[in-house]
Amino acid sequence: MSELVITLVQTDLRWEDPQANRQMFDRLLEGVSGSDLIVLPEMFSTGFTMQVNEAAEPAESSETLAWMKHKASELDAVITGSLSINSGGRYVNRMYWVTPTGEVSHYDKRHLFRMGEEANHYSAGDQRVIVELKGVRILLSVCYDLRFPVWHRNRGNEYDLLVCVANWPSSRRQVWRTLLQARALENQCYVVGVNRCGKDGNGLHHSGDSALIDYRGETLIDEPADIPFVRTGVIGLESLQRFREKFPAWKDADDFTLHP
Questions:
Q1: Would you say residue 257 lies in a domain?
Q2: What are the percentages of helix, strand and coil residues in the chain, rounded to 5?
Q3: Which candidate in 20, 166, 213, 225 could, as Cys together with 143 as Cys, close a disulfide (CB 3.0–4.6 Å)?
Q4: Catalytic: which of 109, 118, 164, 197?
Q5: Average pLDDT in the 78-91 region?
Q6: Is residue 75 part of a domain?
Q7: Is 42 annotated as catalytic?
């Protein structure tokens, strides 16, 4: 049965400075080898910026997306994280999924953080995106999405791992930690949450609290707050499937149709 080696990269971000951030991630990823999947934070090239006219990269010629393709090939691993993107004049918070062979999938953040005026500057996506890696089916998610369980509902075990990238402030760190565990428990899946740490250009502090959580809600990776780290963990489908067979709560879930 498939195992997946996942690397979580938690760090401070240089405010609205894509080149400096790419160089920083080059350094952080130097020692990474043997991973199948490398997860970077939300808007990892700029921080959570609303300055879309200056910060959003064009989808057709994004330097950071080109960098992701290069690193994925170099490290022989999928790389994922979100960017501020101009897609034909429509600004989106786009989570890219880039394979070592250069294939690119993306998910546009559905739930825009109105309290931070994200909805005033970006357009919401309307499609859930599930990708597959080594037999593991993976649902992509960005930050504020995490608060909405219907969007993440694992209908009929259609995915095995939820990956959520974030710029989640430390003032609500307990909410972040609780919701990561809740999504794992209610969906009987693994969860990866990668959040930034440090202060952004608006003075907001982020504690990180990036984590890898199993389908029982147990933390497999959980470092102290505020400390940048690069950590690697392993998840396995066999134990997940055994658990789903032994405790098939998913069979009693309510049926519904999702209308984005």
A1: no
A2: 30, 30, 40
A3: 166
A4: 109
A5: 97
A6: yes
A7: yes
Please say if 186 is a catalytic residue.
Answer: no
108-132 pLDDT, tens digit per residue, is 999 999 999 999 999 999 999 999 9
Counting the structural domains of the chain, the total is 1
Of all residues in the chain, the percent with pLDDT exceeding 70 is 99
Q: Taking the CA atoms of 153, 173, 48 and 67 in sequence, report the sign of the dihedral they define.
A: negative
Kindly state the tokens that stand for 234.
């392993």
Choose the catalytic residue: 57, 143, 189, 197.
Answer: 143
State how beta strands 78-87 and 57-58 pair.
parallel
Residue 166 sits in a domain of what CATH number? Answer: 3.60.110.10
> 75, 33 in Cβ contact below 8 A?
yes
260 domain-assigned: no
Nearest in space to 25 (alpha carbons), one of 94, 74, 84: 74
Question: Annotated catalytic residue: which of 16, 42, 57, 118?
Answer: 42
Q: How far is CA 144 from CA 73, 101, 132, 152, 191, in A?
A: 30, 30, 23, 12, 15
- Which range marks the domain in which residue 174 is found? 3-250
CA torsion angle 149 112 222 83 (round to 10):
130
Output the CA angle 109-35-38, nearest 5 degrees.
Answer: 20
109 in catalytic set = yes
